[in-house]
Write a structure and sequence with these properties.
The chain is an all-beta fold. The protein contains three helices and 67 strands. Helices cover 3% and strands 41% of the residues.
Length: 838
């Protein structure tokens, strides 16, 4: 009552008035039981009735009652979308546009409804990312930028050729809008400019710095050495690589650190000194880093127990045992030509897995898992799975798994429902190179100093084909930071499969076949294809281990086709100066430009300057490349082997052979005389010609190679398809022109990849696997057969077919055995088989 006047308010009005007074805002409420007004109509409103695909908006339902009052019914009404393929709606009225078209959006309360028509338009451009972010180039340099658009439906598109590029300071750098060079910035003078990409009203930008000569990379060498514990020293060198191509020894000025100083410390001069390992600890590891400002390099140092029974053996962390891909384990004191025989050697146990084992098993000693310490053998399968087994037994507490990880579950970054790839069905070309599933094909690589395994996977997710790089904790199988990352790549080019002047890594067609390389803090991955099913190219990608940023790449045929990196699963090879060596398969080759722009059938020397492109330092292409290309006779079907330093006129050499069976011996420091990378006129013609510009070429002595040779005691061992295992001695850095020894057993396709176990330069055994019964497309399916030969004579010692108790699982082509600490580990189609002294 105010004065003498009485006020009469309906209950709902009182509630509304109190809400407004107390909260100073609108309130939602329901009519009280004494509210006799009835709902007459519902009005549906939204910020806009035209939405782009991928956008979400809140719709409002407002009810009008018979007494002219209104009420917000958004949370109490029943919502529906007439066409859920166009728009979906939640119980609370949140609409998401999912497809172009129109749909009626309706709100119902009791018998009353209201609706509006929503129009969904195509996804709109929301943002543009310009990469690389904030690069620095020198005053004579260029930088290729890429513009990637993100749309309202979260899809992305390469817009490099459609945006308008600009530089805020053209006196520092200009940038091209010309077809074929879109986004290519050219330095003019020192300073910083903003590089912008604009399409319509949407723009993205990054800073480009132009400076004088800058330090780009520090290489720590040697890479991955091993020393004994208890005070042994290992000197390291830090070499700086600068933007003008010069190098400088930074050993005395770099800042040196050890990631585990109890394993080994390092002084200001780069000399590491090993600590003393505890009893029962066979090996331990640390990373030795050299830094100058923000630039750093790293080498992994293994320290082994000098009192251990396996003295000097650190483990097997990479394909074919080392980055030179020699296949050697020279610290094997338990297996000798004396005890590898039918009476005392055989199959010890097996462990079942969920897919073919194409990747070589890897071995790490003294790993702490769930409170226990184990020597661990790691197995990756085409099931996109990684297994950790005790390497020594399968009984008692070691009877089962130490751990198992599916790398296509959501915990490892995959979308829900992700599967392996059925390449035979998905390519629709009858390809049977990898059946029945594709998951992990390449051999992973392990950094024992951080306990990390780097693995590449292929999967099918929501109809898309995804490649990922993972960082896996070797003690649990869990994903570690910074992994995982989806692998994508693109470069300017008009080659096979290009779109808008850009060539991209195709997730379906491309296969990571070659083993991963871990070098100086960077992971390298090489790609080819399935069954030569185009379009594809050879891709070599570099990822920083600390950030999983893709730092550099190389494409073999940006304006052509093919040229994949196959090497039958061999790892990308490298030396301790961080030079990378890799061989491509058949494809287009540029006979006009030097250096060549297209690099089919080529053995390459590459260096990573941390710029957007890997630097092609040197290369060799056989004189008969056009014939090789036409006949599908890949140079790169075989892996590259880096020889230890040789006497004679050439110290640093590599050996490689391909499908033609020609052996190429090449000087790694200058691959061809006079830099005659490709001999067009003076080397003759196929089939009587010969490459005279390399150190040595041996023809007609081996069959085509789908494998990597092995090195031991001044000899190289080759095992061609449909051929015998053959030993070629080395003398003064030259190979014998014919084999000195030949095995009695012939290895049908695909031949074999030999590996070596020895105690220093004694007790050498050459191990090989006959995988010719791997099944389709071979005529038969049957067990792999493991062979042991005495090094130097190729005298047969033992094989797994001699007794019924040593039979292995069914064969997987290109399988490479792992010899570690007195045992041999062999991957098959269904199981890991373990052999050793009985």
């Amino acid at each position: 009552m105010v004065g003498s006047q009485h006020w009469t308010l309906r209950g709902s009005t009182v509630v509304a008035l109190l809400c407004a007074i107390v909260l100073m805002s609108s309130c939602s409420f329901s009519p009280s039981s004494n509210h006799h007004a009835t709902l007459v109509s519902i009005a549906v409103t939204a910020p806009s009735l035209s939405m782009a695909k991928g956008v979400s908006e809140q719709f409002i339902a407002t009810g009008t009652y018979s007494d002219q009052t209104t009420q917000n019914l958004t949370n109490s009404a029943t919502w529906s979308s007439q066409n859920t393929g166009v728009a979906t709606i939640t119980a609370g009225g949140m609409v998401t546009a999912v497809g172009t078209g129109t749909s009626s959006i309706q709100a119902v309360s009791g018998a009353v409804s209201g609706s509006v028509t929503l129009t969904v338009t195509a996804a709109t451009l929301v943002s543009i990312a310009v990469t690389p972010a904030n690069p620095t180039i020198e005053t004579t340099g260029t930088e290729q930028f890429t513009a990637t658009g993100t749309y309202s439906d979260n899809s992305t598109q390469n817009l490099t050729t459609t945006v308008t590029w600009s530089s805020s300071q053209t006196n520092i750098a200009t940038i091209s809008n010309t077809a074929g060079t879109n986004g290519l910035a050219t330095a003019v003078a020192n300073g910083t400019t903003t590089i912008q990409a604009m399409l319509g009203s949407v723009r993205g930008s990054t800073a480009l710095t132009v400076s004088a000569i800058s330090l780009q990379v520090i290489v720590v060498s040697p890479q991955n050495p091993s020393i004994a514990d208890n005070g042994t020293t290992q000197p390291f060198t830090a070499t700086g690589h600068y933007s003008d191509g010069s190098t400088q020894n930074l050993t005395a000025t770099a800042t040196w650190t050890s990631s585990n100083s109890s394993v080994a410390s390092v002084n200001a001069s780069g000399v590491a000194t090993s600590g003393t390992l505890g009893s029962g600890v066979n090996a331990a590891f640390t990373s030795i880093q050299a830094a100058a400002g923000s630039t750093k390099g790293v080498s992994i140092l293994s320290v082994t127990n000098h009192t251990s029974n396996s003295s000097g053996f650190a483990g097997v962390f990479t394909q074919h045992n080392d980055i030179g891909r020699t296949g050697q384990n020279l610290s094997e004191s338990m297996l000798t030509p004396t005890n590898v025989n039918m009476a005392s050697f055989g199959k010890l146990f097996s462990q079942a897995v969920d897919g073919y084992i194409y990747a070589q098993p890897l071995y790490v000693p003294n790993v702490t898992i769930a409170g226990g310490t184990h020597n661990v053998i790691y197995v990756a399968t085409e099931g996109d799975s990684v297994y950790a087994f005790d390497a020594d037994s399968n009984t008692g507490t070691n009877a089962g798994l130490l751990w198992y990880a599916s790398l296509i579950d959501t915990l490892h970054g995959a979308a829900a429902g992700a599967t392996t790839v059925n390449i035979e069905a998905d390519l629709d070309s009858g390809c049977t190179d990898l059946i029945p599933q594709v998951g992990i094909t390449s051999t992973p690589v392990i950094d024992p100093s951080s306990g990390t395994m780097y693995v590449e996977t292929k999967s099918k997710e929501n109809g898309n084909y995804i490649h990922r790089l993972h960082a896996i904790d070797i003690t649990t199988g869990a994903e570690k930071s910074p992994g995982p990352v989806v692998i994508t790549a693109s470069v300017p080019g008009d080659g096979d499969g290009s779109s808008g002047g850009v060539v991209s890594l195709d997730g379906l067609h491309h296969l990571n076949r070659v083993g991963l390389l871990l070098l100086n803090g960077t992971i390298y991955l090489g790609y080819a294809s399935h069954c030569d099913d185009s379009p594809y190219h050879g891709w070599l990608l570099a990822y920083d281990t600390g950030t999983f940023t893709q730092t550099s790449l190389l494409v073999t045929t940006p304006n052509g086709g093919l040229g994949g990196f196959w090497m039958s699963g061999a790892g990308v090879a490298a030396d301790s100066s961080a030079n990378i060596f890799i061989a491509s398969g058949n494809g287009d080759f540029d006979t006009v430009n030097v250096p060549a722009h297209e690099l089919g059938d080529t053995i390459m020397k590459v260096f990573n300057t941390d710029s957007s492109r890997l630097s092609l330092l040197d290369y060799f292409t056989p004189y008969d490349q056009s014939t090789l290309d036409g006949d599908d006779s890949d140079v790169g079907s075989g892996g590259v082997l880096l020889l230890p330093d040789q006497p004679g006129g050439v110290t640093h050499e590599l050996v490689e052979a391909g499908k033609e069976g020609t052996i190429y011996l090449i000087n790694r420091d200058q691959m061809t005389a006079g830099n005659l990378h490709y001999c067009q006129t003076t080397c003759g013609t196929y089939p009587t010609g010969k490459d005279t510009q390399i150190t040595e070429e041996v023809q007609g002595q081996i069959s085509g190679l789908w494998s990597t040779p092995a090195y031991f005691n001044d000899a190289v061992y080759f095992c061609g398809a449909g051929d015998n295992l053959k030993e070629f001695p080395l003398s003064n850095g030259l190979l014998a022109t014919s084999p000195s020894e030949t095995s009695g057993h012939g290895f049908n396709f695909p031949g074999c990849t030999p590996v070596v176990s020895a105690d220093g330069n004694t007790n050498g055994i050459i191990w090989s696997v006959d995988t010719s019964t791997y099944g389709t497309p071979a005529p038969t399916l049957g067990p792999a057969v493991l062979y042991a030969y005495q090094a130097g004579t190729l005298t047969p010692l033992w094989n797994s077919s001699q007794t019924g108790t040593d039979t292995a699982g069914n064969a997987v082509k290109f399988a490479v055995p792992t010899i570690a600490n007195g045992k041999v580990y062999l991957g098959t189609q269904t199981e890991l088989d373990v052999y050793g002294p009985k």
